[in-house]
Amino acid sequence: MSSFILLLGIYFGIYALLALGQNLITGKTGLLSLCQAAFMAIGAYTTAILLSRHPHLSFVYVGVWVILSGAIFGLLIGIPTLRLKGDYLAIASLGFGEIVKNVLLNADTLTGGPMGISLPIKSFDKGLFLGMVWLVVCLVLLGLIQLQRSHWGRGLEAIREDELAAQSVGLNTPLYKGAAFMIGAAISAMAGMLWALYHGSAIPQTFDSTLSIMVLCMVVLGGLGNYYGSLFGTMVIVVISELPRLLGFSAIIPAAVNQILFGIILVSLVILRQKKS
Amino acid sequence: MLQHLLNGLTVGSIYALVALGYTLVYGILKFINFAHGDVLMIGTYVALMVFKGLKSFIEIPFAFGIAVLAGMLSSALLGVVIERLAYRPLRHAPRLAPLISAIGVSVILSNSAALIFGTKSQRFDMPFNNTPIHCGSLVVTPYQGLILITAFVMMALLHVFIKTTRTGKAMRASSENPLVAELMGVDTDRMIRFTFIWGSALGAIAGILVSLDYKVYPTLGSLIGLKAFIAAVVGGIGNISGAMLGGLLLGVLETYGVAVLGIPVGYKDTVAFVLLIIILLVRPSGLLGSNKRDKV
Predict the structure, then answer these.
(1) Which listed residue, of A71, A171, A247, B266, carries a Cα 20 to 30 Å from B272's Cα?
(2) Nearest-CA residue of chain A relative to B268?
(3) Interface confidence (ipTM) of the complex
């Protein structure tokens, strides 16, 4: 039982990172991106590729590479969308997610194809790993809150509220949006690294677009633009989605029911929120 | 070469049919109906069920015809219901809101289908003899013929409807400027319903046509939907001829990419996304779209 709670805590932490990254991009800056799973995959595969070739690299070193590669890929998806907004971005990012998954499945020599890569590391002590995950979450949260209070954070919110107005007061909006994407992607890549380390492997099926939608659901549930809300939303969704599986009920309650529930949460929350205002 | 063109046009006309659904809705509501792919998937399932139920009682071509009609009707109905429940309350909300709602609807539909019909893919028996016909060096299967003919007939019908009827004119007016159209006495809600009916019904046809060769499965709509959306953007979203052009272009490019340029089959789907990103960079308003700049 206690190991089960530890596991839930680890998942909570990893998903919380994804939700925080999504909230920076979607909640703060107002860009609907749907490829958190792809950013996470970048982090997981960077970790897996580095560690499977050089098993004795320190985690800090790997972490730096993970953050860098996440940021680079974030910029990569950011660039075509810097001049665009809203709806196009959602599709372009979905497309980006599909491309990443396609490459993972097909570039066998680099990614191991559908089988993925297993890491040559010993499995972690769950308690220790939980501490590690939450240390990262806390650092990220602190960083994001600092960012929010800074000149930069205000700029991002200005873009969300009215991009044209932000431009007209001299804000370099492409720069801000690109930066938001890079930071959000780097945070998700860290989540991917933790995921790969914990599971000792990176397989393409994990990084499905349903994962991206689940993350969006967490952020919408917690309230767009509210980081603490994202943590709360993540907790609710993790409990809903992982509890049946971890308790062994997954045979009775099919995974589709969870997904339907996420869908209903998305639709009804958005509508309720609109009615209130 | 000509053979690839024909194959590409066949795939492309499917994309075009689905792309019309996105473009019609976008024309008026200015938002992407993310659930479009799943609406057509449900229609395809309904058609499959009706076909399976009827084929032992009446002649197969008749059963197929009824099944197609049932599929179109159910998709159209579903489209209208979704618009009423999930999109209309958000019509004046910030742009992110209906988009998120549509994603939710899409998740609900595809997973409900998995729950009701099972995740295993099911076959749609070919309702006709599919021996290829050779004309010169060209090989055409009756199936390809059916797709091409149906797609072009449906697109022509839509074109005539939009250009000549009163309702079509009102639809165009609403998409030009909903507020002014409403002031002139156009019932915008009714026009929006019409776009959903047309879009969903055309989508259902596309879904049924595709699944004759492949299979029917709950995530059927997501990849077709994504590709068709790309087609709509490439042609210029909101522009009806653009959607048709974009669909055909995408189909041909994909086929040529694999057959002529030698892109591995595993990366076939990547062609579409790369095309999308190039178009967004070079000409964000699409091939036939008008380049409107945001004004304060």
Answers:
(1) A71
(2) A102
(3) 0.80
